[in-house]
Each structure stands twice: as structure tokens, then as C-alpha cells.
């Protein structure tokens, strides 16, 4: 039995079923490294594996932060589209990365059916990209692209902050996602916006990282241009 985990009791807002899901004790979290798109690798049990909650009875799934935020109309949508086809299955035990991917994909399907805000969908897609990164899967790029599309739309049309992402950190993240997808012109533009935002002065670490990633994007763009000219 994994001593890093504890049980939390949850009531599903759709079917009212009471079930248990695992969480990681905060005292057990040991960070190994942080990637430039905010992905954290842990030397201990990864709490992100448990960030998507799935009701074993009806199949409703969402991020823990908004699991209970569903309207009466939303409940009807889940019952008609998910529960109707759902074979009861528990996600309440210890999860590996593949279990986590499945839970987040269920949350993404439910989120799309419920027409959640793009920022919320972007958060799910970004976490799916990170999970695929942990197993060196090419599908990481696919979900980085989905996350980018959602976040850019959210930046333009939705109120900020989105979860922990304020205006500056979201601007930076969009630049970073463009960089990871090899779209250097857009990446440079978004890093410029991040560095030029006066609010970034409140977060010196992010400012330094934005400047460094701006430099990386510029170098990669120069390299790409020279390869095209040589070709």
C-alpha cells in the first residue's frame, strides 16, 4: 500500500453516488524538476495522476477544482451521453500514468460535452500532454497543440486568471507552447508581450525565464532560416 496516498470521500453531483478517490499527501510531494511549461516531475508519487475525478457509477469526470460545478442541464447531458454507455469502473485506487491519462481523457470528453470554458479545457489538455511526456509518447505534441488553441482563445475572450494562470503567466505559457511546437515567430511575439507587461516585474523568476525562452526562440528561428537558405 502506497503510504503517500489517502482516501477522500466524494459525492457525484450527477448521480449522487458517494465514492472514494485517492489524493497525495502534501507532505509526501518531492519535486525533482520543473519544465519551462510548468510541468513538474516528482521523485515521489505524482499528485497530478489524481487531479481528474471520475464517478465509478455514472462516468462523469472533471478536474477536482470544478468537479461539483455542473448545471441541471449539464447533468442531463452527462446522463444522456456518458452514463447511457458507461460500464461501472472505479478509478479510486492507486493510479499509474496510463490510468491518469484515461481519467483526464474522460474529463476532457465531459468538458467538451458541457461546453466548458476554453481555459478549463486547456488545463486538461496541457496535463494530458505532460502525462504523455512522462512516457515519451509522440501524442504529447498533439495535446500541446490542443492546449495552445484553448489557451489562446481563453486569453482573448475569457476573464483571467484561469486557475493559477494570471495574465502574465498565461502570456508566457502561450509563448512557450508555440516554442515547443516549433512555431518560432509566434513564440517570439508572445514572449515579447510577456516581458513587456509591467506586471511581470512582480515575478522575477518568470521574467528571467521569459527572457531566456525568448532568446532560445530567436536562436531556433535563426537556425531554421539558415537551414532553409542552405536547402
UniProtKB/TrEMBL annotation:
SUPFAM superfamilies: TPR-like
InterPro entries listed in its UniProt record: DUF2225 (IPR018708), TPR-like_helical_dom_sf (IPR011990)
Source organism, top-level taxon: Bacteria
Protein name: Tetratricopeptide repeat-containing protein
Organism of origin: Geosporobacter subterraneus DSM 17957
